[in-house]
Structure formats: structure tokens, C-alpha cells
Amino acid sequence: MTSTEPLVRRSSGDHAATYIKRLIFDQHLRPGDRVPQDEVAQALGISRIPVREALIALEREGWITIEMHRGAFVNDFDEQAVRDHYSLFGLVYGFAARRALARDGSTGELAAVLDAILRQLGKDDDPAQAGHVALAFHDAVVHAARSPRIQTIMGAMSGLIPGNFFAVVPGSIPIERQGLTAIAKAVRKGNGDAAAKEYEKMMRAHGDLVVELFESRGFFATP
Which of 74, 100, 120 corresponds to the end of one domain? Predict the structure, then answer.
């Protein structure tokens, strides 16, 4: 899960994708609406080329549907799709944790790294710090797995919440704190299966919160 934006230079296409997600999330664009490509380009001061790149990425992620010669249209939100999204994050991160521990052997290097990161979280509910710690923690697990395939998969996945997940989703910080603590404990014991299960549990809980948030905003289509 990308809780905060990484501290790296992002492309114009990435900025356009985030901007369009924000329009959808804030319900300036609703299901069935056409994405105004020229207006997006003008608002961001970019050409239409990165906007088209953003639309291709957003279609791959399920946000929109591109119709030939007609444009890009916002998709309906589906509760199960949201839950599946976070379950998939849990599965991939869990797999990465298993792989990382298999490579770590008995050195305990990953456990030491995760414990050091976790100590930065603190007991307050500061969204910026929670996002920084969560991103560092998850990146450390993926890095320790030393698997280009896992990195590719994670690179193709993006969060449903624009901006800082913890600032937007009520109740997410306690869930993340509890989940990361349990994952780190399993890693200290060298138990990859337990770490994977804790990852899956945490991400499912985040998915439940996002479903509640989307329901409160009236995102899901009425049957």
C-alpha cells in the first residue's frame, strides 16, 4: 500500500493520474462522467500526452474505461473490488515477507531494520509520520525479498486514496501500528507464514475502512 508519496521525482503522467483520482475521490467526477482531458492538462500546465498516459494507467487500475473515439469515462465503484484491492496488497506483501525471511536466513538483519523503523512510529496519531514509517517498513520488506518480480508487481499497484492514506482514512493509524508491530514480531521469530498472515489481516482491515469511507461518500452505485 502506498501510504504516502515516495520522495522521488514523479513524471507528469503520475501527477495527472493523481489529479484525476482526486477529482473522482472528491466527486467532482462521478461514475459515467467523461474525463475532461483538456481541462486536466490546462490545470496542471502540461500537454495532453501525459494526460493520455495517466488515463491508460488509470484504466489498468480500474478507475476508468477508455472508449475508442469517445473518450475516457469514470467507472462505477464496487465494494468487492475495493476489498479485493487491499487483499491483493496483503497477499503480495505477505509473499515478499516470506521471500525476505527465506533469504535472510538466521542473520536477523531484516528484523533489526524493521524494529529500527518501527521505533520511529511513536504513540501519537500523526498522519505524516505514520505514512513515512509505513512506507519505509513496506519498502524494507520488498527490498529484502530481492525479487525483481515482486518489485515489478508492487510498482504496478497503486493506492485508491489520493495523498496520505492515514490523513484521509479514519482509524487507519491504529490498525497500521498494530499490524506492523505484529509483522515485526513474526519476522523476529523468523516465521514467514505468520508475517504473511499478519500482512493479509492488516490489509483486509484497511480495506474495510476504505469501504466504510466510500460508503459514507456515496461512491458505490445503488443496486
Answer: 74
